[in-house]
């Protein structure tokens, strides 16, 4: 299992710029949204894939693009932005559970 400090240094050599992300990661939680830098997103995905993150929260716009094996996908709302999520959107996001790619 990779060391979180080493992953932080590799993915974010200038440090994590999003407040509280490092504390969340150390507690096994993470967020994946547009406010993260590219390095921070890579860090979250690497930490999740390595089992260092047990709970990942993502916005609906990014949830469809998170290719990580998970057991469950929970939906807070069936809205995607201001409009309702289509059946295709729902299947795309829910279908990512348990498979990579």
Automatic annotation (TrEMBL):
PROSITE patterns: HELICASE_CTER. Keywords: ATP-binding, Helicase, Hydrolase, Nucleotide-binding. GO terms for molecular function: ATP binding; helicase activity; hydrolase activity. InterPro entries: Hel308_SKI2-like (IPR050474), Helicase_C-like (IPR001650), P-loop_NTPase (IPR027417). Residues 1-101 form the Helicase C-terminal domain. This is Helicase C-terminal domain-containing protein. It comes from Emiliania huxleyi (Coccolithophore).
